[in-house]
Amino acid sequence: MYAADNTRFRIQCKLRFRYRLLKRPAHLLPAAWLCTKCGKQLDEFGDHAHACKHLKGAPVTRHNGVRDVIHAAVSCAKQVRSLSEATMLSIGAVPKPELSHQAQAELKIPEHRADIAIIPDPDRGVNFADTLVIDVTITAATSTLTLAAAGPTTKDKETGEVTAGDGRATGKAAEEKAKWKTDFYAARYSNLQKGNFFPFVLETQGFLHARGRLLLCKIARLQAEYADERRRAAKYPSYASLGVRTRRLIERVSATLQFGNSTLMMRYLQDCPPRF
Fold this sequence. Notes:
By secondary structure, the chain is α+β, with helices and mostly antiparallel strands. It is built from 6 helices and 6 strands. The protein is globular and about 70 Å long.
């Protein structure tokens, strides 16, 4: 888990409620307020940080943090085996037969790695038909990444529907990215079944795709089953319910995401705006 200092906490609150992170100089028009690193237009809400190539290391660190939380949670269940960054071919994935060796090389299939691969029965070895492949993705909650056109997130008082600043309902970006990821894997591997692939997609504002929520419930159930076996063997009463374990997993993922967001925005505020 991560501890947030005052600066990080303020940034996290501003991101969550979509307050301005910085103010555009009064003498500059929006089109003239450019990033000092990549030359694209800046914005006051930090949306540019998700697209700035100069900051690409921070999103990778954020992604790896969420991946490690899931990997650690699965590793707590003794009856399964979790692999991190294993190549798809090493766990039994078969490329599409219509893809030539040259096409596979161009698509980088030999080097393509699964973020996490869960093997349900390690004693039987790797059986790809039973292996769960998890791809962790964090996508921007707003589609306008280089402009400050997106406004604050709103909630309809009558229906309760939450709408992002760019007009899309919360979760729309995650749904689009999950579909893209599913199509991405399906176009490359012939023996990957839909039920064996989990696109764990998070929006930067915290929305978790339905497949991701289902995955966390499955992991919590595995942990609960293993803990129940140990509890009966050791004859001690300490036991966390399935709901408690699921909530703890969601909290860990949420804290890791917020810490990664604040790290990204701290670099954005330090490196991207011009100094006058």
